[in-house]
TrEMBL record:
Main subcellular location of this protein, as a coarse class: membrane
Bilayer-crossing regions: 12-32, 67-92, 125-148, 168-194, 206-233
Name of the protein this chain belongs to: Flagellar biosynthetic protein FliR
Pfam families (alphabetical): Bac_export_1 (PF01311)
Membrane protein topology class: Multi-pass membrane protein
InterPro entries per the UniProt record, alphabetical: T3SS_IM_R (IPR002010)
Location in the cell: Cell membrane
One GO BP: protein targeting
Family: Belongs to the FliR/MopE/SpaR family.
Cellular component annotations (GO), alphabetically ordered: plasma membrane
Amino acid sequence: MEIVLDQSRIEAIMLAGVRIVAFLVIAPPFSYRGIPARVKAMLAVGLALAVSPTVEAGYRTGGTGQYFGALVLELVVGAALGFLVLVVFSAIQSAGSLIDLFGGFSLAQGFDPQSMVNGAQFTRLFQLTALTLLFTSDGYQLIIGGLVRTFDALPLGGGLDLAEPAEALTGAVTGLFLAAVQIAGPLIVVLFLADVGLGLLTRVAPALNAFALGFPLKIFITLSLGGVVFIALPRVVSILADNAAQLLMGVG
């Protein structure tokens, strides 16, 4: 019995797997460390086999040096695409950080080794909620679909035009700050008005020492109105998942 192995197809699948692994290590929600590495590896192999008919069509085998160069290139491409998705979803974490800062929770920061997030209560709460919503709302499928379509825009070993990822990254960072302010903006305005009211009260009656009530009052307002922001997170995550998928498909 003679088994013939298609070297070109095997190399194409391995290169696709390298790009997918680099993407899954960085891009949320797959970057969450609570997901076992074995599961990520199995997912990468399955996706590489699924895209093999697409990637092997335009791939041409070469020498050993050329192949290792293509491996490094695919590693860079996967990491760059994963970083773009990470920047998009960092808007939710940034919104939580703004709420912690203006609400007085930033004094109790902690590090979450699973999600690699250093922040206070709302930062970690928003991050975990976003990861949960990505899985429960099938938002992760949009991200995987965008990753699969990158093999059409960026063929294996075809090189990477740094101008397009840089332009996409600039737009993603701009959108990050804008989305963070939009998510946490209403609550931040209320907390700012509370500070203004306490300042006016101190000017009118200095003996009351109104700023002594500042921390408990702002914490009470944050906990009371934080649920309003929390309710809006499902729609925010859905919009960010669409933006991430479009961003992946636009690089190429």
